[in-house]
Design brief:
Elements (H helix, E strand, L loop, with lengths): L5 E6 L4 H10 L4 E7 L3 H12 L4 E6 L5 H14 L5 E4 L14 H26 L4 E8 L10 H21 L4 E8 L13 H11 L8 H12 L10 E4 L7
Helix pairs in contact: 1-7, 3-4, 4-5
This protein binds NADP nicotinamide-adenine-dinucleotide phosphate.
The site of NADP nicotinamide-adenine-dinucleotide phosphate has 30 residues, from α1, β2 and β5.
């Protein structure tokens, strides 16, 4: 194992935006630790796809909303890697309903998987990153700042996530670790199909976005690639908005 190898942990790295991020980083000398919740078929397909490109893959099913499962993820990484170069937290969960109807359970799921998990993942990554430095990136959404119908549980958790990015960025700079987020507009993935009234929401989005289209997982993955690269070495604690200009109007 040498410094030319790269070790990357991606949560939710097997579907949607996480999948595009995984593909964007694949190549010889990369060892992926790919976490997902339960969709084995997608996970096995991604594993095959990126092994063909010369990468090694350790699949790590587990619920990142559960702190014990995050500990297990890091036990496995510690046994198989000398360090971690990149951590990307793309996994997210949440119910779609008005905030005034949220049950405690609904609130907890979003905050646990989307925000608390990021804190615990960063804490778990620190011992593996602090010697050589590293890059930590997470995925947020416009709902962190703007009202979106039925999106409150997730939007509020993303607001916490974006603030965690700022706090971690300042604290971890001492270890040459950069922490940033990419905030996406509407990207057509499986998760969005669960949105009540998805087709109407998409129509509204298309009518307001200057480029007249929705985002693709690759649009977001390219920004993540930039944040993982040396070109972004003077950027930390930021949430870069990649929404094709939707949020300008
Ligand atoms: N789609 C959008 O319009 C959009 C816009 C802005 C931001 N985002 C953000 O982008 C990220 C990815 O979203 P997406 O639309 O690509 O989602 P997606 O297609 O539904 O994929 C979600 C991935 O996360 C995994 N996952 C979900 N809950 C998990 C948990 N508790 N523990 C571990 N893994 C878990 C899933 O595993 P399984 O395959 O096993 O289910 C899957 O691999 C999220 O943070 C989301 O909030 C999305």
């Amino acid at each position: 194992m040498t410094l030319t190898e790269k070790f990357i942990l991606i949560t939710g790295g097997t579907r949607g935006i996480g999948h595009a991020i995984t593909l964007s980083q694949a190549g010889p000398g990369v060892h992926f630790f790919l976490n997902y919740l339960r969709d084995e078929t997608s996970a096995e397909a991604v594993k095959k796809e990126i092994e063909k490109r010369g990468s090694r893959v350790t699949l790590m099913p587990g619920n990142v909303g559960n702190p014990e499962e995050i500990s297990q993820i890091f036990s496995i990484i510690q046994e198989n890697a000398p360090r971690l170069d990149h951590l990307i937290h793309s996994a997210a969960l949440g119910v779609f309903k008005p905030v005034h109807q949220l049950r405690v359970k609904d609130w907890d799921i979003s905050l646990d998987v989307n925000a608390k998990a990021f804190l615990l993942l960063a804490q778990g990554a620190l011992p593996l990153m602090k010697k050589n430095g590293g890059k930590i990136v997470t995925i947020s959404s416009l709902g962190a700042k703007h009202f979106t119908p039925n999106y409150g549980a997730i939007g509020i958790s993303k607001a916490a996530l974006e603030n965690l990015v700022r706090y971690l960025a300042v604290e971890l700079a001492a270890f040459n670790i950069h922490v940033n987020a990419v905030s996406g507009g509407l990207v057509e993935t499986d998760s969005l199909k669960m949105f009540p009234d998805f087709e109407n929401m998409k129509k509204t989005y298309l009518s307001r976005t200057p480029f007249g289209r929705t985002g693709t997982p690759e649009d977001i993955a390219r920004v993540v690639s930039f944040l993982l690269s040396r070109d972004s070495n003077w950027i930390t604690g930021q949430t870069l908005i990649a929404d094709g200009g939707y949020s300008l109007s």
